[in-house]
Design brief:
Shape: globular
Family: Belongs to the glycosyl hydrolase 17 family.
Number of strands: 20
Structural class: alpha/beta
GO molecular function: hydrolase activity, hydrolyzing O-glycosyl compounds
Helix content: 25-40%
Number of helices: 16
Organism: Digitaria exilis
Radius of gyration: 26 Å
GO biological process, one term: carbohydrate metabolic process
Protein name: X8 domain-containing protein
Distance between the termini: 29 Å
Amino acid sequence: MAAVAGAEPSCSYINVRLRGPNTRAHPRPPINSNPTPHLVFVHHSPQGKQDFIMAVHALLLGVTLPMLFFLVAEAGEVGVCWGTQADNLPDPGSVVQLLKNNSITMVRIYDNNSAVINALANTGIKLMVALPNEQLDTASSPSGAVQWVQDNVAKYYPSTLINGITVGNEVFDQASNLNQQLVPAMRNVYAALQTLGLDGAIKVFTPVAYSALKVSWPPSQAVFRDDIPQSVVADLVSFLRQTSAAFFINVYPFRAYLDDPNHSISLEYWTFQPNAGVTDPYTSRVYYSLYDAQLDALRYAIGRVSPAATASSLRASLAQGTGADDVQLTCSECGCSCWNFPGKHCPCQNFANGLISYTLAASSSSNSKYTASLVSSTGGGGATSAFIFALFNEDNKPGDESERDFGIFYPNMQPVYGVDFVHGSGSWCVANAAVGNTQLWAALNWSCSHGADCSAIQPGARCFSPDTMVAHATYAFNDYYQRNGQASSACDFNGAGSIVYQQPKLDWACGPHGADCFDPDTKVSHAFNHCYQRNSRAASACSIVYQAPTNQARGKRKSISFLQSQARHSFLHPASQAVVLIKPTNHWDVAHDEPGSG
């Protein structure tokens, strides 16, 4: 796939041949339901054979252990933060219709606005209301908490599906004078819910700012700030465990990207796109998204203040399931401001859709990579749910201009960028070229022997070209991953595989199902333009002609947009296997066609 880091520039390299029955199994069968292909290994030297055997041993260790510990959890859910610090927002009824139109099923508000709560009645949309910092004293006594819950929750429920109450917001940062009052207030609110018989349906949380961490990288060394009483955090975690509530964290990966003085955080790393990964030097765990690394850092920090795990015994306690791995995480605010990317393509859309895909696939094993040793990872998994901040741009929010530009919708309810709350951006498994051909080779053959249908990448088959290790491994990895329900453990291969949440670009003659430009599913349509582009449009990569393709395939147009430019561009047209030179002055739609397809 085009975005795979470190892909070989050549379009003609292979170390393994496969032969076997041309089977096509039912989608996502149990592992090993496919007949095992016969594998013929091409060893170019005795050392190559030894390298292969060692790679297989490493692969089996890396694949088998995660499978033993992999437990599927309930998929997560993604909602939005509905802020109202603006003077030009639509009425609540119109907003509710907007939520429905976009399949948004969960909302968090920052107060107890009766108009909003009533507008959500009988909609099936779950709502989280708030007891703001300035009202925290209300819950300082049991009787005060009962009165507040009666007035702001009980009288609306169950017509409005209130499923949570946030007590305070970023208290450790915004109202540190209330640190000692926070957890007692949460306990009083929870006791009030018990008194009113609502504790089974409504949980109590408090959002914590990610800046509460003194150290966040590497994740295994994360700790909370010294000015935050560790006893308060321990009491908070204890309360959340007792009530089976999630730890709420407000985390903004794009801020870490912008504030990185060494520019070591890549755009791809924080927007869930393919990247080489970043390794925690203390655990050897490889992270393929900044968001995942930040969540893991929080788990380690929680483990260090939890009575169940001290700093000296953290790793052992986590491995035994007694540290922070039993505390669920919810991203109570996750957002991105396009204001911070002037004059550029805003990456916030990639982040939002990647976040949705990540969360929808949430499980007890992380959606990033497992290494061979589970003890070196917290193993807590991704956030169970997330709230995208924010629903609208809010023109009255305090702070710099970027604070007023986090919305996924403008106040006129037009989208700032497209967000798919149902599917996100999907997920695929791609080969990580950075591990080298020996490890890819071992992983490729393992996947083909354990359920992946590799018949299409045999010599002469429709997906054999281009003949590269990365192309073949990606095809096999993704087939195995999709057949196993997109389980994160099914794209590990001891680091040889990487889950991506953006539609991968075509990088070989036969794209994976669901990838951009897969339809029409013909070899002519898939080959060979990207290989040509990958090789710097070298004439040796194809036969060059000069014509603009405009045909249609099976009556369906498949467009490739070329941005306006005054320069000459070239691409390889599949029907003729020839380079076409064009000088676009506007957007161009190019249809792929297979001769004789009709």
